[in-house]
Amino acid sequence: MQLTRFTDIGLRIVMALAANPEATHTSRQLADDLHLSYTHVAKVVSRLSELGVVNSRRGRSGGLAITDLGARAGVGWLARHLEGDQPVIECEGSTPCPLRSACRLRGALARAEQAFYDSLDQLTVQDLIADPTGATLLKLLPPNSPPARPHDDDAVQTEEVPSHEVRSIR
Length: 170
Prior knowledge:
48% of the residues lie in helices and 5% in strands. It contains nine helices and two strands. The protein has a two-stranded antiparallel sheet. Strand 1 (54-57) and strand 2 (63-66) form a beta hairpin. Helix 1 (5-19) packs across helix 5 and helix 5 (75-83) packs across helix 6. The longest helix has 16 residues, at 105-120. The chain is elongated and about 60 Å long.
């Protein structure tokens, strides 16, 4: 199984914020510190905010912070919600597979996907940020440093990224 880039970025952001839950960071800071595209980070932060995993506050003293839900979330739960309900294999698309009525592959892949998520369900965000990862994240992310640019919003507004675009970085 392979996670989308969207989910990869989402998990990295949650880990970064959970490593120091007292600190706030801007989307731009996270993008810079984690070597990610700001546009992608903004879209992912919007989705994480919708899920209640990240708290986003605007203004000079605003920023992004992990919520209690985000800090204790299961990795499988996060991955499922960031990945969405897309099947592993598309059998019904615009040109349906002629084997779909007698296919055993779709069931096998569905079971493999379930096993993949079941293994992720064994982990929490806290497991992911245990040392040495947590210590490395703390070195990468300076706590409460000033915004990268004076005119940047300190947080991403959820309404700025329409929901149909949230998944577009896949």
